[in-house]
Amino acid sequence: MVDDYDKSGINSLGGFVFQIDTFIYYALNLNPSESLEYETIEDVSIRKQDELDKKEDSFRTKLITSESYKAIQVKRTDITNEVAERVLMNWILLENSGLNIDKYILWGDKSYSNNGNIKNIDNNALHEKIKENTDRSSKSIAKQIKDLFAKDYENFNTIVNNIKSKHEFIENESITDTLIEAAKDVFHKDGVFNPVYIARINALRSRLSFEILQAIKNKTSYKLDYTTIRKMIVDITQTITNDYPIISFAEHKKLHPIHINEIEHLREVQQLRHCKLSDNEVIRRMFKCNYYHDYQFQLKEQARISEKEDIEATAFDNFEEVKEQLSRHGKDDPYERLTQTEAKENSSCHNQHIRKGVCIYLTKDSSITAEKQISWKDDEDE
Fold it and tell me: Which helix H or strand E contains 35, and what residues bound it?
C-alpha cells in the first residue's frame, strides 16, 4: 500500500471548505450596516457603511456615508514566518490602495503549527528583502511593493506599522463547534431537537456553499448583505422544524443535482429502466428518492424510528396490494406497478415528494431495505 500519495488536492479542498465555513461564521454575526464579501479585497471581507450627519450651518445637515472594511485572510495550513510574511505583503498593497481598512484578521486552524507572527516581522529586514527581489513578473507582489517603496522606507515603515496596529490573529480550534455556538440564537438551539438545529446549520452551509460555487463558476465575487442572510435564516427556520426536519424539496433539488451516467449502476435506477422510462423521468423520480433518503435519516437522528417504519411499511403494503390486483387482472407490468404504487395514499407522509420518494427508496439493494424491498420487475424475471 502506498501511503505517501499526493494529498495536495485533498488539502486544497479542505482549505476551501474552511474558507466557506469561516464565511458562514461571519454571515451569522453580520450587522445591519454590514455586508459580507467572498474573494474581493481578501478571502473574506466585511464592508461597513455608516451614515453620519455633518452640520453645514445652523439649519442644514448633510448625510454622508463612511465606508470601511475588515480584511480576513483564511489559512488552513502551517502559518510559518514565510507564510506570515506573504500575508503581510498582500496587506501592504491593500493598505496602500486607499481603502479604509480598520481590521486585518488572519484566521488560522489550531490543528496546524502556527508559529509565524506578523507583529514580530522586522520592518527593516522585510524592506531589504523586497529591495533585493529580482522577480520581474507584473503579478509578483514583491515586485509591486518594490516599485512603490524601494526608495521610500519611511512610508513603507508607516504602512507596515499601521497594519500591525490593526492586526488580529484568530486561531480556531474547531470551525464546526464555532458555527454551532454562533448559530444558537438565530436558529433557536434551545427550542428544537438537536438534530433539527444541526440540520438548520447544514442547510445554511449548503445554500451559501452553492451560491459561492455558482459565483466562482461565473468568475465573479460573491456578496451577501444583512437583509439576504436574515431572509435565508427565517426561511430555513420556518422550513426545518421538529415536525418536518428537512429543507424544501425544491431547495434539495437545487443543492443536489443528478447526472444520469453517475447513477446507472444503482438497483433503483435499473428497476426504473424496466419501466421503459426516459432519462428525465428516471431523474425526476431519483430526486424524490434522494429526498426521502435524507428525510428518513433525519427521522432516525431524532429517534423517530416508528414514524419511518410506518412510512415504509405502508409503501410496501401499497406495492403488494397493487401487485396482487394487477396479477389478478392479468395486467402485471413494471410500469403499472410503479405508477399505481406511487398513486396510493400514505397518510404518514407529509407531502407527495416523501410519498413517492419512499417507493423508489425501497427498490434499493436488500441490504438497505431488507424484507420491504420493492421490485417493479421481479429479480427472477430479469
Answer: strand 34-38
Q: What angle do CA 340, 342, 343 make, to 5 degrees?
A: 65
218-239 pLDDT per residue, tens = 999 999 999 999 999 999 999 9
Q: Nearest-CA neighbor of 348 among 300, 313, 320? A: 313
Output b/e per residue, 187-214; b: 16+ Cβ within 10 A: bebeebbebbbbbbbebbbbbbbeebee
The span from the CA of 95 to the CA of 92, in Å, is 5
Are 298 and 245 within 8 A, CB to CB?
A: yes
Write the CA distances from 84 to 99, 123, 164, integer angstroms.
22, 13, 12
Question: How far, in Å, are 50, 53, 347 from residue 57 at the CA level?
Answer: 21, 12, 72
Look at the block and give the residue holding cell 434499493: 364
**Other beta carbons less than 10 A from residue 80's beta carbon:** 14
pLDDT in tens, 29-39: 999 999 999 99
327-344 pLDDT, tens per residue?
999 999 999 999 999 999
Collapse the DSSP code of 349 into the 3-class scheme (helix H, G, I; strand E, B; otherwise coil) and give the result.
coil
